[in-house]
């Protein structure tokens, strides 16, 4: 069997039947005593598949799907491009947007940013991911005349235009991560329901607006105020005017944090229509679905919200671990709140080829989490046998991401995987796999790995 044939075959097998591919590389499933040792035929097949010798093969954990085979290569000509990927990523064609964004759905429009396009300290608008649940309203041209209502459990119901919002309150600008609650969903096995995000349902932009807390104080919360409910101008996909495309909410303490903003500018420019302009919420650290676009109304409730996206398994995770793929028991679910810790390598991109003899590699990336903050970021060139702490930049403000950099040796020519593992301030690290399976795949934050071929 030629190596090219082996490459395609094993790669196809990893995509079509990962268990079987795993068995080919790591030994037969039935032979449990020997399973987990990579060697002999397995190592040869894997070497052929990834396109080189594997310097740290003795450290490869049992059952690892090589990064070169697990993900589509971002860079053309990389080690993963030799085989035939059955699903070619569909690139985005949208005014003002980078064509490197990957379309995950077109009705509604959803597109993610591959990790290597998140290499800017501040994510440019052109590279910022897009997530819609309904139709995209055309709200261009309304700008300062757009009106917003605050009602429900408040002493003074407020109705103001964006123009009034800008003049009545003190604006703030913070650089903050916005991240889809389903980011990392594609890492779950068996496949979870919803858009198959890798790590690219996130971006970090400078948001300018008025703190929501200031507006809520102006409205005066009644003692019965418990929860918010957010409403926007985007029609439901079906066009049914009695249905909301999305309507989520949060407990009052989260709504009263100083970083939650009613935003009209992104990276110093008027908030683009696709990102919710003229105005949206940005509620950092919690699922992006709270950051309501085309914001029309916030109703303060005396109980948890029950709008579109608040019930069933939407934005909910299992309390006690459930059987992956199993039936959901309603009483075992809680609302997804703070997002888990995540680190990504933004440079180089997965599938990079380096000249023979290259002996060092410089890595760059980002790390963020929900409410806790990043304690450290570590990288590995040997499948996690040893780790090197990356240099991190101080975040500009709370909820900003941490940019990091590190250099690692590449002692020989061959196939490497470079791994990143971020740790939050409670000591929690990214795991090896997306663990806590839930029907809609929230909380998947395994370490990010890229494949690099030297020589
Ligand atoms: N009105 C409205 N707001 C919305 C959504 C939506 O479908 N409609 N999607 C939410 C979700 S799920 C996410 S992840 C973010 C995405 O924001 P972006 O498209 O600006 O990246 O917007 C949130 N706000
Ligand atoms: Mo989302």
Question: Concise description?
Answer:
With 455 residues, the chain is an alpha+beta fold.
Which key phrases capture this entry?
455 residues, alpha+beta, Sulfite Oxidase, Chain A, domain 2, Immunoglobulin-like, 3 domains, 5-stranded antiparallel beta sheet, 5-stranded mixed beta sheet, 7 helices, binds the ligand Nc1nc2c(c(=O)[nH]1)N[C@H]1C(S)=C(S)[C@@H](COP(=O)(O)O)O[C@H]1N2, binds molybdenum atom
How do the strands and helices of this protein lay out in sequence?
Blueprint: H1 3-16, H2 18-26, H3 40-50, H4 67-70, E1 90-91, E2 102-106, E3 109-112, E4 130-131, E5 147-152, E6 158-161, H5 162-168, E7 172-179, E8 202-211, H6 212-219, E9 227-232, H7 252-255, E10 261-266, E11 269-270, E12 280-282, E13 295-301, E14 316-318, E15 333-335, E16 342-347, E17 352-354, E18 360-368, E19 374-380, E20 388-389, E21 391-392, E22 402-409, E23 414-424, E24 448-454
Parallel strand pairs: 5-13, 17-24
Antiparallel strand pairs: 1-2, 2-3, 3-4, 5-6, 7-8, 8-10, 9-13, 10-11, 10-12, 14-15, 16-18, 18-22, 19-20, 19-23, 21-22, 23-24
The structure holds the ligand Nc1nc2c(c(=O)[nH]1)N[C@H]1C(S)=C(S)[C@@H](COP(=O)(O)O)O[C@H]1N2 and molybdenum atom.
């Amino acid at each position: 069997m030629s190596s090219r044939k082996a490459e395609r075959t094993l790669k196809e097998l990893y995509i079509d039947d990962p268990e079987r591919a795993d068995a080919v590389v790591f030994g037969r499933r039935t032979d449990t005593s020997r399973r987990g040792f990579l060697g002999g035929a397995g190592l040869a097949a894997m070497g052929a598949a990834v396109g080189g010798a594997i310097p740290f093969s003795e450290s490869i954990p049992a059952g690892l799907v090589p990064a070169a085979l697990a993900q589509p290569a971002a860079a053309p000509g990389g080690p993963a491009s030799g085989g035939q990927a059955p699903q070619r990523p569909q690139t985005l064609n949208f005014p003002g947007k980078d064509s490197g964004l990957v379309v995950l759905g077109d009705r509604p429009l959803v597109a993610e940013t591959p990790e290597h396009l998140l290499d800017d300290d501040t994510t440019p608008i052109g590279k910022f991911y897009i997530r819609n649940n309904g139709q995209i309203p055309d709200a261009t041209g309304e700008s300062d005349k757009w009106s917003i209502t605050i009602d429900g459990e408040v002493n003074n119901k407020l109705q103001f235009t964006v123009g009034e919002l800008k003049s009545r309150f003190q604006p703030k600008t913070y650089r903050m991560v916005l991240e889809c609650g389903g980011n990392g969903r594609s890492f779950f096995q068996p496949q979870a329901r919803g858009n198959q995000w890798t790590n690219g349902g996130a971006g970090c932009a400078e948001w300018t607006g008025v703190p929501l807390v200031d507006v809520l104080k102006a409205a005066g919360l009644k003692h019965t105020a418990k929860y918010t409910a957010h409403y926007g101008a985007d029609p439901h996909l079906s066009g049914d005017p009695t249905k909301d495309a999305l309507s989520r909410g949060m407990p009052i303490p989260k709504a009263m944090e100083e970083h939650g903003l009613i935003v009209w500018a992104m990276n110093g420019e008027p908030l683009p229509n696709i990102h919710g302009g003229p105005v949206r919420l940005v509620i950092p650290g919690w699922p992006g679905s709270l950051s309501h676009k085309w914001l029309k109304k916030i109703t303060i409730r005396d109980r948890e919200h029950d709008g579109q996206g608040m019930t069933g398994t939407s934005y909910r995770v299992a309390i006690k671990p459930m059987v992956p793929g199993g039936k959901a028991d309603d009483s075992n679910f809680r609302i997804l709140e703070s997002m888990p810790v995540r680190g990504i390598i933004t440079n180089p991109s997965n599938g990079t080829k380096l000249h023979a003899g290259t002996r060092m590699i410089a890595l760059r990336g980002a790390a963020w989490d929900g409410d806790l903050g990043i304690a450290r970021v570590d990288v590995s060139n040997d499948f996690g046998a040893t780790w090197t702490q990356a240099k991190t930049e101080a975040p500009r403000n709370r909820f900003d991401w941490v940019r990091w950099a590190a250099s690692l040796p590449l002692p020989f020519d061959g196939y490497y995987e470079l791994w990143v593992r971020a740790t939050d301030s409670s000591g929690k690290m990214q795991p090896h796999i997306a663990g806590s399976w839930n029907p809609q795949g929230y909380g998947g934050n395994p370490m990010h790995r890229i494949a690099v071929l030297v020589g």
